[in-house]
Amino acid sequence: MRTATPTVVRARAAGARRPDFVALKATVERVRSRCDVAARLARDPVSYLHRYSDPLDQELVGILASSIAFGNVKTITQKLEDALVRLGPRPSQTADDSLRVFAAMHGWVHRVFRGEDLARLLIGARRVQRAHGTLGDRFAADLAAAGSLRGALAQFAGAIRDAAGLLTSPGAASRRGPAHLLPDPHGTSGSKRLLLYLRWMVRPADGVDLGLWPIPPSLLLCPVDTHIHKLSRNLGLTSRKDLSWTTAEEITAGLARLDPSDPVKYDFPLCHLGMLQRCPSRKDAARCEGCGVKPVCRHWQTPRRGAVHLLPPQALTKRSTKKVSASAVRR
User: Which among 122, 176, 190, 191 is least buried, having the fewest CB atoms inside 10 angstroms?
Assistant: First the structure.
């Protein structure tokens, strides 16, 4: 097979440099191996999925947990705990009774979301789940039909929104909450919360993610929050300043150089490293002390002016828009 000619991309800023992927892989694998999963899991919304043994409950709790996962972690977990107590030990059974769900969620509020928003999300997700057997089977069908991750995710989210009238209920158009709870992946954001949900459902069961869905992990995109964004810029995985879908593609392309079969496996340990270190995105001897990625951080490297990056074509491929064959979806 003939090797394609690399594409030349000039550094956008003085001092920018191509990552040493050999050193980067060794460093992030070390961070991953040293991550105290049990301790960090206790501070992550995905921990709530592990309380349930039935995959149907795990799917529904996952869509609720990921959808409200923005802002202060302590507040997120408190609000999620409150919601799950209201819904009882079997959310999938509770969701079959719409009136019961609305009554249970009455008075619940989190940032721009109201109890009625979360109720409609749960009811819609449960209706889609019942129609297809599992939410994973529905997403697999969307992926086969759309041929791209972004297109499939848009169809999947749209089906859940429509199933319970999340956007068409009285007063929904006048508030930010309903549209923000389950956003359109074709919009301007990076759909971080939806991509986080996919990671939980798709990646192999490893004590963090659950591996419930028949989708190859290689198709996933990294959910980019502020912690992943800062670290990715510092590691040279992206120079972009926004948290867009394109930024997620660029970061994932870099992580795929480390593990093409499962690039998003680095998300959990790197995100929690960023939370612990409170990365300052600058050279700071005190704040950077003990940081696991300090040896490959651009702020601690000798800058080279006018650097030229030689990236292979696959690093520039838009992973979410490339066609996905039906055989790529496990049955």
Answer: 176
Q: What is the pLDDT of residues 65-86, one digit of tens each?
A: 999 998 888 999 999 999 999 9
From the number of C-beta atoms within 10 Å of its C-beta (0-12, 13-18, 19+), residue 250 rates as: buried
Contacts 24+ apart (CB under 8 A), 225-232: 225/70, 225/192, 225/271, 226/274, 227/270, 227/271, 227/273, 227/274, 227/275, 227/279, 228/267, 228/270, 228/271, 228/274, 230/274, 230/279, 230/281, 231/270, 231/273, 231/274, 231/279, 231/293
Q: How far apart are CA 157 and CA 154, in angstroms?
A: 5
- Helices and strands per DSSP (H, E), number in the chain: 15, 4
Entry pTM: 0.87
Which DSSP category does 53 fall into? -
The 10s digit of each residue's pLDDT in 282-313 is 888 888 888 999 999 988 886 555 444 434 44
* First and final C-alpha spacing in the chain: 30
Element spanning 248, H or E: helix 245-256
What mean pLDDT is predicted for residues 199-213?
97
CB atoms near residue 172 (< 10 Å): 17
H/E element, 82: helix 73-87
CA distance 110 to 112: 6
d(C-alpha 49, C-alpha 32), whole Å: 21
Task: Reduce the DSSP state of residue 115 to 3 states and report it.
Answer: helix
Determine the Cα–Cα distance for residues 194 and 155; give it in Å rounded to an integer.
12
